[in-house]
Specification:
Mannosyltransferase involved in glycosylphosphatidylinositol-anchor biosynthesis. It is an enzyme of class 2 (transferase). One of its GO terms (cellular component) is mannosyltransferase complex. It holds the Pfam family Mannosyl_trans2. The chain has one domain. The protein contains 24 helices and no strands.
Length: 533
């Protein structure tokens, strides 16, 4: 029924192209998922294919969110939630809270049933984000949830959606704000991923496939719920795109905001570390300019510090609220540490996160749940290392003639120098970003044609590998599905294997079946307060 309804809707709203989303929900022999992304028929006009494909990505992102939200409503209607405590909302502990008394508020709501329906969809970690937006950080464990999403929710609920408070209630408006923010932000993530993919892969079709795969990724339920994954993905992918585009200042700001939304945002500083290594290498060994190398190192260090600032500031905020002004005997143990790090203590004390602490027999089902995403991650890294060992194991520092695409193209000093030759290289790089054509210097042209196997993918591969290792050895492993779901190399590699000669069709079925199964399973379990990643 859902599939038929959606197909009728798509026929009305998307007349200019054919998008077989029904293959995701109910694959049939007549639809080849390997060619799913290629079956989009673009209008024949004089405008660029990139513009048409970007429009297709936007439409696909919107459609995917509508499908997920429809599934949430369906499962919530047909099934009873495992835990019915979602609507419970006691008054804020702080006497200074600007929010009205909950009991008094509910008496004046015009549509209490609608408000209750929205509140009942606030489950799992969404409860924390909404509570923080409403009352601030009341308990020690709430500091595990970073403040960017709660701040955005609070701002939207007090401005644009404020007129809805008398209609559905304050908490329902907060929940609605979270849904609106994340579902709109998801569309921007998809667009940035497409633009980044065009620049890195130099292949519009591969970029389109990767972006549509992201639109229907296995962790889709979290991108349409009140979770921080969407904002984190937006500022991580967007920051990487700006970095690749040579806009280092904007990239620093976006990466810093990713660290303001999730703790692992600080790992994005690794991209600047990679850039700094290559620029320092260029300055010392190729240009023979030691002072320039010093400038590069100092500049890279300052950029990394800026990315770390939100994380450090939030830890200091927690220390000020929890530790200062308390007697030593009443202080939390982490307050007395030489380096008082609140986040690590909360993860270890309240959620049992730690190195190998999750390696227990009873956790085998969770390892199985995470095995598809971890297997895809491992395969993507091993495949790259196997086919490009001279780049992978040298971190891109190998030199011609062994590998002509070693300089990691977009991480050279071309964008930071002033002489005419380097400025021409920078203009060529910007032209590549603008229209996808290869105007790079001769030694980079090979890299520009290699798609997933190009040297420019290497820093993203390294970032993905570190995050995957953290998810497997340190975190609750079932979180890996959403923890890694934003990573561009996963979709680049999936797009790559779907076009492999001979086996591409089979892998197309597997990839789409995996995504569809997790979308259906996630929307069913998560929305009804059952455990899911």
């Amino acid at each position: 029924m859902i599939t038929e309804t959606f197909k009728r809707h798509a026929a009305k709203t998307l007349p200019d192209f054919i998008f077989p989303v029904s293959a995701i929900l109910s694959p049939s022999p007549s639809v080849d998922p390997h060619n799913l992304c290629n079956q989009i028929q673009m209008p024949q006009t004089k405008t660029s294919p990139k513009l048409h494909q970007e429009t297709t990505v936007i439409k696909s992102a919107i459609i995917s969110r509508l499908i997920v939200l429809t599934l949430i409503l369906l499962w919530r209607t047909l099934l009873s939630p495992y835990d019915t405590s979602a609507p419970i909302n006691p008054n804020c502990l702080s006497n200074n809270s600007s929010q009205p008394n909950v009991d008094l508020q509910q008496q004046h709501v015009l549509l209490p049933s609608l408000g209750s329906a929205i509140e009942s969809s606030i489950v799992w970690d969404s409860v924390y984000f909404v509570r923080i937006a409403q009352c601030g950080y009341e308990y020690e464990q709430t500091y595990a949830f970073f403040p960017l999403l709660p701040l955005c929710i609070s701002l939207l609920s007090r401005t644009v959606l404020a007129p809805l408070v008398p209609v559905i209630g304050q908490r329902a408006v907060l929940g609605l704000s979270g849904f609106v923010i994340n579902n709109i932000a998801f569309v921007f993530v998809a667009v940035y991923l497409y633009r980044l993919s065009v620049v890195i892969l130099k292949d519009h079709e591969a970029a389109l496939r990767a972006s549509i795969l992201f639109c229907f990724n296995p962790a889709s339920i979290f991108y349409s719920s009140i979770y921080s994954e969407t904002l984190y993905a937006l500022f991580s992918v967007g920051g990487l795109y700006h970095l690749i585009s040579g806009k280092d200042v904007i990239a620093v700001l976006w990466f810093a905001l990713s660290g303001f939304s999730r703790s692992n945002g600080i790992l994005n500083a690794g991209y600047f570390c990679f850039q700094t290594m290559h620029q320092a290498y260029d300055a010392v060994f190729l240009r023979k300019r030691a002072f320039l190398a010093l400038q590069v190192v100092v500049g890279g260090a300052l950029r990394c510090i800026c990315i770390f600032v939100p994380f450090v500031a939030f830890q200091a905020y927690g220390y000020n609220n929890i530790c200062l002004g308390h007697l030593p005997n009443n202080m939390s143990p982490w307050c007395k540490a030489r380096v008082p790090l609140l986040y690590n203590y909360i993860q270890s004390h309240y959620w049992g996160v730690g190195f190998l602490r999750y390696f227990q027999v009873k956790q085998l089902p969770n390892f199985l749940l995470a095995s598809p995403i971890l297997s895809l991650t491992l395969w993507s890294i091993v495949h790259y290392a196997k086919l490009k060992p001279e780049i992978f194991f040298s971190l891109g520092f190998c030199a011609p003639p062994e590998c002509k695409d070693s300089a990691a193209v977009f991480f050279s000093l071309a964008g930071n120098s002033s002489n005419s030759q380097e400025n021409s290289n920078l203009k060529a790089r910007k032209q590549v970003i603008k229209d996808g054509t290869s105007l790079l210097p001769e030694e980079y042209k090979l890299s520009a044609k290699q798609g997933y196997l190009s040297a420019a993918v290497l820093p993203c591969i390294l970032h993905l590998g570190f995050m995957a290792a953290t998810a497997f050895f340190v975190m609750h492993v079932e979180v890996a599905t959403r923890f890694l779901s934003f990573s561009p190399p996963l979709y680049w590699f999936a797009s790559y294997i779907m076009k492999s000669p001979g086996t591409g069709k089979r892998w197309g079925y597997i990839v789409w079946a995996y995504s569809a199964a997790y979308i259906l399973l996630g929307s069913l379990l998560f929305s009804n307060f059952y455990p899911f990643t």
